[in-house]
Amino acid sequence: DGPWAEIGRLDKAAAGRSVLVRAWAQAVYRGSKTKNVAFIELRRGMSTVQCVLAGSAQMMLFALSLPKESIVVVEGAVALLDNPLRYTTVREVEIQVRKLYCISRAAPKLPISVEDAGRSAEEFAKAEAKGVPLPCVGQDTRLDYRVIDLRTAAGQAVFRVQHQVENKFREYLSSKDFISIHTPKLISGSSEGGAAVFKLEYKNGKCACLAQSPQLHKQMAICGGFCRVFEVGSVFRAEDSNTHRHLCEFVGLDAEMEIMRHYFEVCDIVDGLFVELFRHLNENCKTELEAINRQYPFEPVKYLESTLRLSYEEGIQMLKEAGTEIEPMADLNTEAEKKLGQLVREKYDTDFFILYRYPLAARPFYTMPCYDNPAYSNSFDVFLRGEEIISGAQRIHEPELLAKRAAEHGIDKSSIKWYIESFRYGTPPHGGFGAGLERVVMLFCGLNNIRKASCFPRDPQRLSP
Ligand code: 4AD
């Protein structure tokens, strides 16, 4: 298939082929045994290959003058190796270089090295045991030089997993007759209520908010006659939470659907989607998960084929029996969520479960109260490894009740008049859910910080790069 070869596809079968490869030169060095031989390790994505230069002293000098991370093009022959290599992902063959070009010369000294940023947990442990600890690149430095940090195997792997999550979300929902929509990110009022909203100056003296979710418009799409919709899009939260799991901008995976009988129909979609997603990731992202595991060791997610559903009351009862008292009718705090996650794992052997029927007071204004007891709501949260990844609910589709609930939440009705009015023209009962893409990836991969699952994270302290 042409002379351009993908490093990741080079194997025994390619031996003897003449290839052209463009890649990052992650290491260039002189042979230790034979002085007139030099080696270049090339990297592309998560794959690395050894190239050997022999014969031309001029080409060797040129190679040795190349700064690490320069982009080179190599023309050469694929040759079988007697002994498989240990330090490149392509182990059975190498490229014997005939021609070498430099396409983009990197700076002589990079602010962080890919090698340091990508060291495995095992390397750290071994060095520690020998009493010669290795340099460790801190999180902020990594994020300052994110374009270099992303080149590590784990950096590449996380975003390949993210890509699979996003694809599966689209594919699964499309197969269930959802259609993809795009809602505005500039809106006239806050979509989730509360203070966590970015406000900005719009045109003609108007003030606009950056959408905290597609909530209002995804519901309006249902009003507009689409029975099932989903959106993958940016959402903005003016969070003041400097935590491991909050960003000021993240990617929302949202869905909204008509409900025929019960809001558990929404839970059924979440259940089917996530069980399928976990299976898909485990089967199709083996290399990626291994690369992440080498740098940031984690246990695979435990999940059940049919997702456990616990009521909020059952959940707080479990916590109570374990000695954790929850303020009645309040949301669970982070520690209580973690604790419940542990208890559920011990009792049901799963890291993934749905907690439903939350107190109404703990939910946004648009949430449908329970028909049998309006102190509770037709809502749910979904937990992975003891942290929330999804929240969902049935929505109020009666305009009077909706306006009353907005007022009770201190929301200026005039700012969302267009939303409330939409329910006057005939709307079926409906519900939906929203997940945070970065949170799903962070928790599935057992990462300790959401910033690792965002290419260029935005948090209260960080607006660049
Ligand atoms: O729980 P949230 O705020 O719910 C909504 O936005 C609703 N409109 C969803 C619905 O359809 N009912 O956010 C949904 C998810 C959370 O479960 C979490 O995964 C993620 O979005 N999330 C955040 N991720 C990163 N940084 C933040 N600041 C986040 N806030 C919420």
Report on the structure:
- The chain is of the alpha+beta class and 465 residues long.
- It has helices at residues 57-64, 114-117, 121-130, 139-144, 146-149, 153-175, 215-223, 264-284, 286-295, 312-321, 334-348, 399-408, 417-421, 437-444; strands spanning 18-30, 37-44, 47-54, 70-80, 93-104, 179-180, 186-187, 199-201, 207-210, 228-236, 249-258, 308-311, 352-356, 379-384, 387-394, 430-436.
- The strands form three sheets. The chain has an eight-stranded mixed β-sheet with strand order 6-10-11-16-15-14-13-12, with helices on both faces. A five-stranded mixed beta barrel has the order 1-2-3-5-4. A three-stranded antiparallel β-sheet has the order 7-9-8, with no helix packed on it.
- Strand 2 (37-44) and strand 3 form a beta hairpin.
- Bound molecules: 4-amino-1,4-dioxobutan-2-aminium adenosine-5'-monophosphate.
What average pLDDT do the residues reach?
A: 96
User: What is the overall silhouette?
Assistant: elongated
| Ligand roster | 4-amino-1,4-dioxobutan-2-aminium adenosine-5'-monophosphate
Structural class: alpha+beta
Strand runs, count:
16
- Biggest sheet: strand arrangement: 6-10-11-16-15-14-13-12
- Which percent band covers the strand fraction? 15-25%
Family: Belongs to the class-II aminoacyl-tRNA synthetase family. Type 2 subfamily.
GO molecular function, one term: ATP binding
Main location: cytoplasm
Domain Aminoacyl-transfer RNA synthetases class-II family profile: 159-465
